[in-house]
Amino acid sequence: MPPDLDFLFYPQSIAIAGVSGDKAKFNGGLLYLQSLIRFGYKGKLYPLHPKGGEAEGLTIYPSLKDIPGPVDFVISAVPARYTPQLVKDAVNKGVKAIHFFTSGYSEIEDVAGKALQEQILGIAQRGNMRIIGPNCLGLYCPSGGLTYNSDFSAESGTVGMFSQSGGISAYTIQKGNARGLRFSKVISMGNGADLNESDYLEYLTRDPETKVILCYVEGAREGTRFLEALKTATQKKPVLVLKVGASESGASAAVSHTAALTGLTATWEGLLRQAGAIQVNGVEEMVDVAHALLYLPMPRGRNTVILGIGGGSSILAADLFAEAGIPLPQLPADTKKRLMDIYGSEAGRILKNPVDINSFDGTEVLVRMTKAVESCDNIDLLVLQLGYDHYGLIAGPYKELMTGMFLDSVIALKKAVEKPLAVILHSYGSAWTTELAMKMQDKLIQEGFPVFMSIQSAARALGKYYYYMERHK
Amino acid sequence: MPPDLDFLFYPQSIAIAGVSGDKAKFNGGLLYLQSLIRFGYKGKLYPLHPKGGEAEGLTIYPSLKDIPGPVDFVISAVPARYTPQLVKDAVNKGVKAIHFFTSGYSEIEDVAGKALQEQILGIAQRGNMRIIGPNCLGLYCPSGGLTYNSDFSAESGTVGMFSQSGGISAYTIQKGNARGLRFSKVISMGNGADLNESDYLEYLTRDPETKVILCYVEGAREGTRFLEALKTATQKKPVLVLKVGASESGASAAVSHTAALTGLTATWEGLLRQAGAIQVNGVEEMVDVAHALLYLPMPRGRNTVILGIGGGSSILAADLFAEAGIPLPQLPADTKKRLMDIYGSEAGRILKNPVDINSFDGTEVLVRMTKAVESCDNIDLLVLQLGYDHYGLIAGPYKELMTGMFLDSVIALKKAVEKPLAVILHSYGSAWTTELAMKMQDKLIQEGFPVFMSIQSAARALGKYYYYMERHK
């Protein structure tokens, strides 16, 4: 079966309904137009508004029928009451799909909203046109030149996503971009009146560009079909699910948000596990697990050694890794002896697992120490941890120097070490140490390292990474 | 009973042993000297080193007995083997207390280390001199001009802390400073050979400068005394405990770190709860709960309403607040009607609890909306949430403008609203939105707002805040 929704992501021409020349007011249509232009969309763009005029140097057409050429795709940013006419015009124009940024349909507690959604759906179905939304941000697909926000990376990648929240999709993309993720296709799907979560999941499963699937789900419109789609998907690629609406208030809010019925938490948890999906507890964790899947070569097993600077952070790390089900085996006696030989004394250090090297003694010492630990048969993964604000006596620019030297050495170390290696940058309180850590995150990701920004997030993401990997060897 | 350890924090003169003129090597003594000078310590400073010389424009004395005036306090940064002589000299000089940065005592798996600790302890006790450490960073007390790191705020405050990890204490201070905490006294206590966790807890309980006590604990040397001290302390002020070493690896590392015996997790949890302490799961949570205790006026009850921008983040917030035991009651029908009147339509919004206002419509609308919600009898606390990277269509500098306007309005709002109000700034992925959020954190804290940097951390901190407050009304 071919990936039948490809046409959504590669339109040759897009009309945007509701592009007003009046820039003083919030103008969703104009924002879409500007984003697509800035993003470098290569096809034809047609702004629409009954009053005509000009926007971004383009003629604003009064309606779809006035556009000279064909139109593949329509973005609607007009008030809900005008949309039945727009849908009729689109069907007549031969439009293949229409995306409704517009809200005010089944998600409002108003019979009229539900009726309106039924009406536009009926017209579209009879005209063989697909609907994205309503009440959503639409499509992001770098390889097709599509976006709803010009802050998103224009580089194409392997992470696909569908989301019942536009805001969550926007945050996931930006957080993901900062964490080295690049996306294939992201669908902010809103109410899912026509195309729903099952359609998108089935599509992303078959899409060869997509290697990892992320989902933000409030509820499923076709429960049984979604579960089947999920089972099929997880056989082919990792599927990460952020399921929300567990609480009474959350469930009630979800109805107002996308008319989703959230169902019972316990039921969902069991079904997701059975289906082989990876359930995550927030956007950050979803991005972290995806990051691990893309950046960490599969270790032979779970046995991990943690090396780094700081006794307190070493013990915290030991607790958090244990909690996440990642074993930190004892180092053999001869390894401890080799470490003692390297350092001369145990004073101020912990030469167990975790290994607290206390302070940075230069690249050569770090390499010798790491190789001594790597050579243990019972170690599969090395984790290096560095806390920015843990350096006791080191203040100001010296802190930058010390952490910089340590991390440069870690980069050098990569060549000397064969076993998989992950880095944790943690504990930055002030604005400047945070900036430092984020810069170093970029650098390490560019070098191809898996990097985590707190000990806790590393432990939890690695725990879920192993959970998946061990079931799909 | 007077606070009998005051003399530790207000020495008139300090000698630092192990200040070498050789700047090329790591020189702990020199770093202490530099930190104290930069921090503005007002008393006399005497660097010590057998070779003499000069450091930071001060004469380096060969030994304590060569110093012309009296010495109240000694910081030792010399190797462990030289410390018995140093302790003898200090006793002869009439020194009141000595702090050992030096490690290599009972925390190493070496009989000699344990014997050495016993030896210096014996000399000090016979000479009526107290020991801080060994194997620790020592004292931070802005009102006494003491610090071990010149990055710490020189402003005095009400948060006291003792910590068995120097690195954790350093991070807590810096994270705390960034989150609006100012400290009275912080003790990095290391092995606690003489003064131990019970001594410091009893002191901080009686110290009038200290209003909140933070503890990082691996294990207690005098279990029963510590538990009694904790019970007394929690009657007078909130005590937040970060207990680590729960895992096998963590417990084993703790022995090498500070010779602490960590005990059973289940036992500790029960004892801490019985004693009325607030157990926290990391430095960040410890700082967040302290922040809530200092910045949030006690609401009448737990009933909370969450207002903000974004459907997805509203539902996530509802789930996380429910998980933390904070109820989000339904808004009365007439309140919902008032909100509908303010906004004209429900389209794209959630007018329940959480309230998703979807987009920012200016200060006046925000004030009217918030006052409408505040006036509900069943609401005790207002929480405003703003996610930086959730703004769907808003990109680049417009995002800064939008979030800025929203937050300026929140500041204006404070005058119009009487019920307690907290702010959550969340979801920043990129370096620039992170910077933006941290700037706004500073500004809001300066305005006296309780601010949290993620939805999850807000929910958990508020949950623990309520837990404490309801037991100590």
Note down, in words, how this protein is organized:
The structure is a homodimer of 473-residue chains. In chain A, strand 11, helix 7 and strand 12 form a beta-alpha-beta unit. A six-stranded mixed beta sheet of chain A has the order 8-10-9-11-12-13, sandwiched between helices. In chain A, strands 15-16-14-17-18-19 form a six-stranded mixed beta sheet, with helices on both faces. The first copy, chain A, has a five-stranded parallel beta sheet with strand order 2-1-5-6-7, with helices on both faces. Chain A is α/β, with parallel strands linked by helices and 473 residues long. Chain A is built from 16 helices and 19 strands. The radius of gyration of chain A is 26 Å and the shape is elongated. Chains A and B meet through helix 2, helix 5, helix 8, helix 11 and strand 15 of A and helix 2, helix 5, helix 8, helix 11 and strand 15 of B.
Report, as a whole number of angstroms, the end-to-end distance of chain A: 26 Å
Oligomer category: homodimer
Largest interface, C-beta within 8 A: A-B, 99 and 99 residues
Helix proportion range of chain A? 40-55%
The biggest beta sheet of chain A reads: 6 strands, mixed
Question: Uncertain runs of chain A with pLDDT below 50, 5 residues or more?
Answer: none
**Approximate shape of chain A:** elongated
Radius of gyration of chain A, CA atoms, in whole angstroms: 26 Å
Please identify the structural class of chain A as seen in this structure: alpha/beta
How many strand elements of chain A?
Answer: 19
Helices of chain A, by number, come to 16
Strand order of the largest sheet of chain A: 8-10-9-11-12-13
Give the DSSP E fraction of chain A (strand runs of 2 or more residues): 15-25%
Nearest-integer average pLDDT of chain A: 93
